[in-house]
Amino acid sequence: MKKQRLVAMLAAAAALLVISAIAIIVVRSRAPQPVAQAPLTPYAGSSGAVTARSVGDGDDGQWTMAAKNFASTRFSTATEINTANVSRLKVAFTFSTGVAKGHEAAPLVVGGTMYIVAPFPNNVYALDLTKPGAPTKWTYKPRPLSAAQGVACCDVVNRGAAYANGRIFFNTLDNRTIALDAATGKELWQTKLGEINLGETMTMAPLVAEGKVIVGNSGGELGVRGWLAALDADSGKIAWRAYATGPDKDVLIGNGYHPFYAMDRGRDLGVTTWPPEAWKQGGGNAWGWVSYDPKTRLVFYGTGNPGPWNPEQRPGDNKFTTGVFARDIDTGAARWYYQTSPHDLFDHDSVNEQILLDMPVKGRMREVMVRPERNGYFYVMDRGTGEVLSATPFGHVTAYKGVDLKSGRLIPNPAMEPREGQVVRGICPSAPGMKDWNPAAFSPLTGLVYIPHNNLCMDWGSYEASYIAGTPYVGADVKYYAGPGGNRGVFTAWDPVRGRPVWEIKEDLPVWSGALTTAGGLVFYGTMDGWFKAVDQRSGKLLWQFKTGSGIIGQPISYRGPDGHQYVAVLAGVGGWPGAIVSNNLNTADATAANGWGVAMADLPQKTTAGGMLYVFSLSR
Amino acid sequence: MSSRCRARLAALAALALLSACDREERQSRAQPVPETLPTPRQSILQPGVPARTAADPRARAYENNSYQMSQGQLLYQKMNCSGCHAHGGGGMGPALSDAEWRYGGSMEEIVATIDQGRPNGMPSWRGKLTEQQMWQLAAYVRSLSAQPRQDVLSSRPDAPSSTEPATLQSRQPVVPSSPAGVQGTSR
Amino acid sequence: MTGGGGLQGEQFNRLFTLFMGITGFFYVLVIVGMLAGIAIRGRAAGTERGERLARTALLGWIAAVVLGLTVLTVGSYASERRVSAAIPARPPLEVQITANQWWWDITYKNAVPANELRTANELHLPVGVPVKVTLKSNDVIHSFWIPSLAGKQDLIPGRVNDLLLLPTRTGQFRGQCAEFCGTQHAHMALDVTVEPVASFRRWQQAQLAPAAPPSTPLAQAGHDLVMSQQCASCHAIAGTPASARFGPDLTHLASRRSIAAGTLPMTRGHLYAWIADPQGVKPGNNMPYIGFDSAKLHAVVAYLQGLK
């Protein structure tokens, strides 16, 4: 009898344990990701094992590509400006670009010269840093077609140039890639890659590696078929061009293609996962960031949203839009692909930067790429295979229920799925995503990724869009507004190893600028009302700020000048997708202005005015 | 007066009232127009004494006509105008619901803009839309900023939109249909 | 009354006959009872026999009503059961029909999206195969009605309705919008062909193919006009740059039985008439008067006629 009772009690205890374990698991998986609510949670100390993979040249104080290096860390090793003296930062000189549109570009600094690509009309300026006041060394005017402005979805921006072997490479809005002699500004070659009458434009910053200039097109809101092309850096000849939709031979999928997940395998998925002919207007534009791993000779980049936005018009997974490709840089052949948002529902492009890191995952060092994705998840992926090691939301997500790490599939929330003729409310993140193109930075000092991003939700009503080449192909009426907390922007320091935020700064306006980290323990970013800020990497404490003449949506950089001192530079000039409210003088009485920013940005015209200006800062001496 | 007489009178009065309800004529086919109509000027600057140009009679026929305006509203969405100009607030293209007209805000000027396109990105719809459709669109586009008669506005939005139907929206100050001497053609 | 081309139609007919029979019986009963009452009234009023008679008549009446209602209920239930038993919850064929002023946009859904088929104003169904029809509207409320196959179902903007169909007899039927939807409501018909499964598959394969390329210089000129002129702003033709969705899909226009949602039979002459003056044929519809001269008209018709 006694023994029996004991067994029963033990069984009961075991059952209780199991039930509570299940309950804990369920509760934990249901509970929203705990986010440090206080803006300044002290830095708890990350494992020192996280290191950025050092690729390319060592940091010699130059800034030769928008993302600083092939690994896209945007980290400067300069230490002259640091947490102790940053309060003494003063303007060294300024330079007006004469354009009142959105300035998203990163300036480049090579030797004693700074290079700037302005928004349309895409003039290139070379400033001589060796002389006081940095006078203009040369100017190059590509004179793009005026009409190109009419097919640029989200302001006539340009995200910067690239430098290699004495040449400057950049894209024009009317689809030309141009190479200039960095010393003289003489045009060496130009290649026309697209057609504005089909809605194509080019806004991205090229990446140059192994003698190839990697460029992609924009136009996901106009039903433009996306591609990424490699041009020969010497001649401008097209070495290869890989489309994002269509038959395998167009996508450059061959025998070497080994995606990690079953959902991305199959023949001609770029055709079979679309209604007939729809892939021809399918989008998937490579308008964002490209990274490169010289060890494996792989190029990494993401593809944009499928066209149209209205998902009901394109049943199927819509390969190979909204996903990440790894391609061989010599042939363009796809090595692997992973679709972050199969059958994208909310314009959640997958073009954000991939920061290449070596970091411990479950106790083992892995060669990974980390991607703060537009759909709200922070992806850690094996960059050799495309395996998703973790995907953690870094903000408030209602649109999805998570990422199934077994199948790799993003799980949509059925309650939020758009339906034609209806308005679905409370979708978070909104179409501009948890984070749009504005690149994050990584600091090996702390092992953290610093993410400038949004806190926005939206209402979405979809209807059937009609494709007329060269006109918008959207089929959705959207309206954005601030997410929980009421702040529209956030600047988050994210621990990629533990998958959690360490601190975050709530910003009133969406943070649409890039981030810059320096070995001085600082992280820089700008706000859309024109504040340029320096923050302590470890604590998130605001150490210095400066009000520029117009909202900042550019990418800050840091360099060592010819005088041996460290400088920090950023382009101010509000615009871009949300800033078009100001730069295009839109009417905010219409909530759907600028594809949904009307109400969300109604106060922006009171907070800033348009105007493009370069600001360069150094310590007062 | 007998009650019978009174009833008869009332019936007559009711009939008379009914006859006053003038039903709007619906033109589903464009009327042939003479080809000598002037092209609107794109500049208000005319050195010396400005010449007067005759107004296009179609401007009056289409503006403030409920049917033409609602056809224009339908086309505004189906021809993807809303993709660039949103519901008047603008986006890739300029706002249409404010009082600013880069290329003139009269019916003739709006039709000319749709037909010819404009250098900073407005595509030319010549041959892609019929002239009648351009006039219908112009009638709707003008209704976005001006104050059209409430009875000719469509209360039904053509898209599942979070914006209110036109009849419930507060309108911008009236923009004159043809601000003589201010915006292009004078009447 | 509906014809007997589909399971629902047949069941509907059967139920209709049953209802007619029972209600007819009660109609006769009431008339007879009334006449009998009038005849008896004078003689039996107030007497005990009269009271008894009235009580018996009332009881008989109640019994008859209960019986009648029971038969009707059981009949409806059985009919409903019959239909739902014959049609699985997820039928093998799903067709999405979107109503527009004034035409029908038809999409045959497929598990492989690349095999989705889009056509307009002509519905082909395989005989004996249950079909799920999902109904949507782009503008106002319409009603989908193929009298020979099934009853009506509304198409409501912002909502998705569905209807299950099981055609039991091959043949050509006519569908019609059954809810007033604007000036051309009467000219919003739907051509329905119910055919053997094999010929349905053949039709499906043929419709899935992209449009035939123009075969003559005249047709080529027509093709160029269609692509560069107003046509491509509204219509889609698979295999060509024309991909707009405002008007009906024209990929296999010439294979259809009628023009403009049953307004005109598909003949060369009617194509001319329709393109030359759509507003004369169907006033108020959204196809504009383009004003092609005769040379252009010849070319466009030659091209469209080749879209078999």
UniProtKB/TrEMBL annotation, chain A:
Domain of life from the UniProt record: Bacteria
SMART domains linked: PQQ
Keyword Transmembrane helix assigned: no
InterPro entries named in the record: PQQ_b-propeller_rpt, PQQ_MeOH/EtOH_DH, PQQ_rpt_dom
Keyword terms: PQQ
All copies of domain Pyrrolo-quinoline quinone repeat, residue ranges: 63-389, 508-568
Pfam families xref list: PQQ
Keyword Kinase: no
UniProt-listed PANTHER family: QUINOPROTEIN ALCOHOL DEHYDROGENASE (CYTOCHROME C), QUINOPROTEIN GLUCOSE DEHYDROGENASE
NCBIfam families from the UniProt entry: PQQ_enz_alc_DH
Protein name, as recorded: Methanol/ethanol family PQQ-dependent dehydrogenase
Organism encoding this protein: Sphingomonas quercus
UniProtKB/TrEMBL annotation, chain B:
Keywords: Heme, Iron, Metal-binding
Polar residues composition-biased segments: 160-172
Keyword flag Iron: yes
Domain of life where this protein originates: Bacteria
Residue intervals of the Cytochrome c domain: 67-145
Pfam families: Cytochrome_CBB3 (PF13442)
Region annotation Disordered: where it falls in the sequence: 23-54, 146-187
UniProt cross-references to PANTHER family, sorted A to Z: CBB3-TYPE CYTOCHROME C OXIDASE SUBUNIT FIXP
Protein name: Cytochrome c
Source organism (scientific name): Sphingomonas quercus
